[in-house]
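User: Reviewer 2 asked us to show a designed sequence for the structure in our supplementary figure. I'm pasting the structure tokens here. Could you produce the per-position amino acids so we can include them in the response letter?
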């Protein structure tokens, strides 16, 4: 199949996806995620206690969130450690956080319609670790370029103040992740919950998801089940036409710290992989969707400048980090430069 045919197929696929959206059911993005300007946030909480107990303690601690800038806000909140791998103190001395507002923020607040939020933090005190999570933020922004069926994120410069001595324990970039219900409402769908699904239940949109995972070099995911036995899926959520949908289900990926693009020190390839490093890509797309994968490849090539712009727009990245990430993204386009490469790197590797 020639590149021109691929591009035409991508345009057709895009028009179909747009047509499937029901404007009557879609909603606006919430205020928090309607802008990319970096927020100035202060979180005051018993961080010494929270960090010490993060791997074991599900306790919600009373805390306060202060928003700086031209329209300051103060909110009483509950804060707790969340996540799995990053709660392991051998990996991260500072865990990811879950924030829950004591009262629903009112009209005019930046946090209007938010009740609970995930916050991705810097993991360790070293500024080197901040670079990894700025790259993870970038990965979310890359997927936003591909499809609106993706988690919005909002970057913040966060000062963490321990309530016990009113001392700042860290000031680093972090980012908020959109709630899945808000995402689903925004695109006219609902979250669906299953312990596992089959590939026959998936929407053709899965081709863009699996190709995106290849773009960023991520193998730490599943769109069919959760490796730990809980609801589907591993590092992903599912949305459909309604809560009972069992066909045309769209997987929404998250958690990209094990990707080659981010390349955290603790990231390792899955046991089933022959790769020695997460920097080595492995395609895990489904053969049932090879035609859609061809269209997705063409679409990604048309978005190359957008991807580069998103990387360059991420604040806080060092020159060395940006250069390394750019080289990694460029290698994807080398992998998919022609029909022979696409066949060898992707289509023959499908499952």
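Assistant: Here is a per-position design you can include in the supplement:
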């Amino acid at each position: 199949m020639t590149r021109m045919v691929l591009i035409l197929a991508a345009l057709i696929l895009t028009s179909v996806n747009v047509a499937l959206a029901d404007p009557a059911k879609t909603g606006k993005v919430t205020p928090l995620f309607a802008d990319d300007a970096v927020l100035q946030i202060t979180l005051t909480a018993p961080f010494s206690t929270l960090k010490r107990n993060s791997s074991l303690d599900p306790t919600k601690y009373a805390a306060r969130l202060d928003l700086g800038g031209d329209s300051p806000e103060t909110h009483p909140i509950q804060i707790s450690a969340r996540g799995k791998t990053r709660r392991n103190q051998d990996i991260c001395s500072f865990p990811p956080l879950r924030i829950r507002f004591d009262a629903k923020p009112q009209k005019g607040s930046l946090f209007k319609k938010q009740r609970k939020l995930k916050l991705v933090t810097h993991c360790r005190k070293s500024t080197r670790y901040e670079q990894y999570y700025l790259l993870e933020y970038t990965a979310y922004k890359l997927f936003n370029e591909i499809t609106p069926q993706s988690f919005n994120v909002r970057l913040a410069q966060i000062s963490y103040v321990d309530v016990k001595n009113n001392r700042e324990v860290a000031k680093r970039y972090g980012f908020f992740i959109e709630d899945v219900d808000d995402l689903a409402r925004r695109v006219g769908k609902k979250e669906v919950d299953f312990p596992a699904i089959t590939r026959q239940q998936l929407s053709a949109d899965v081709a863009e998801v699996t190709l995106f995972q290849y773009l960023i070099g991520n193998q730490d995911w599943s769109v069919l089940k959760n490796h730990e036995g809980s609801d589907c899926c591993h590092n992903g959520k599912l949305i459909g036409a309604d809560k009972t949908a069992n066909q045309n289900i769209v997987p929404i990926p998250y958690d990209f710290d094990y990707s080659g693009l981010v390349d955290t020190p603790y990231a390792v390839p899955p046991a089933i992989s022959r790769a020695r490093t997460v920097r080595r890509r492995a395609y895990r797309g489904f053969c049932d969707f090879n035609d859609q994968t061809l269209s997705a490849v063409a679409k990604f090539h048309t978005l190359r400048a957008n991807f580069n712009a998103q990387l360059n727009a991420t604040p806080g990245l060092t020159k060395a980090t940006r250069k390394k990430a750019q080289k990694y993204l460029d290698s994807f386009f080398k992998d998919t430069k022609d029909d022979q490469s696409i066949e060898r790197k992707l289509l023959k590797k499908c499952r």
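For the response letter, you might also mention the following. The chain has nine helices and ten strands. Residues 127-146 form the longest helix (20 residues).
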